[in-house]
Amino acid sequence: MTIRAIAVNPEHPQEFIEINPETPTPGEYDLRVEVKAASVNPVDTKVHKGAVKNGLQLPRILGWDASGVVLEVGSKVSNFKPGDEVYYAGDITRPGSNSSQQLIDARITGHKPQNLDWAAAAALPLTALTAWEGLFERLNLQNATEDQTLLIVGGAGGVGSLAIPFVKLRSKVKVIATASQQDSAQWCRDRGADQVINYKDMIGELEKLGLKQVDYIFCLNDTDGHWETMAQLIAPQGHICTIVENEHPLSMDQLKLKSAALHFEFMYTRSMFTTPDMARQGEILDTVAELLDAGKLQTTLNETLQGLSVETLKAAHQRVLEGHMRGKVVIVY
User: Fold this and answer.
1) Residue 142 lies in a domain
2) pLDDT by residue (tens digit) across 115-140?
3) Which range of residues forms the domain containing residue 23?
4) Does pTM surpass 0.85?
5) How many domains are there within the chain?
6) CA quadruple 193, 198, 202, 205: dihedral positive or negative?
7) CA nearest 63: which of 91, 44, 45, 42?
8) Does residue 270 lie in a domain region?
9) 3 state DSSP class of 285
10) 252 and 328 share a domain?
């Protein structure tokens, strides 16, 4: 079977080209997967931007979120077999899912939710892992009490759309999400947000709710732009977790005075450094699949494009770059 992939063109990195890679051979922990669908995330556009800026020697296959069927397993894989349906968020150091076949480490792979089609499943892994790790492994919100508050900055995006229901399922904390448009605000409420405020004036909006500070903040966009506000709003001994890298130095004066903590959540840390707990990501994805199959969660799929091609990939990247996506855009192969 000829493998088709859409890659960044090394001669013109701002453009994509179609290539035909050789069939990859699985390593001892690898699965060789026939990819059925892949979603596009901000990380796709950021890596593409880096390729444009820094140049490439060889075509780079982007794409991380995916769903598909296992074709072959490595010698040390015990929890998957050929024919299994899987979903995963990939490994940023390896060739991506914008390809008809891909190698993926079994330890960071989950069994696909049975009740979801390929597109609906592919919309979830990266954002689910980011939300879960940020909420429960960085902020430890499973230990929060009902009189505490969590502010989610960017509630209607891919991560926020899962962070809200995750918190409602596994924590007692009160959830306040930000959104600037009516339909985005309703999207957050539909997923369980207790309150929705406009991010353009978080301090004023929270004061209307009788709040001058919050115990936890989960920042899902523009760390630089929101930093002063977050530093002002975080309660003494509170916790901030951000998934967005800062481009400028962040003043720590307020956090130092408040003994507040700053956490970074980067979903690729475990696979990038092959951490001892790397298999935790596969476990999280299996837990999320169970919640989906039980009807306790819903997919964040919002738009589906048909066919793996230069045109569909460009269109999906453009949707993400516009910065107003609710949920996720997925390409079905």
Assistant:
1) yes
2) 999 999 999 999 999 999 999 999 99
3) 5-124+275-332
4) yes
5) 2
6) negative
7) 44
8) no
9) helix
10) no
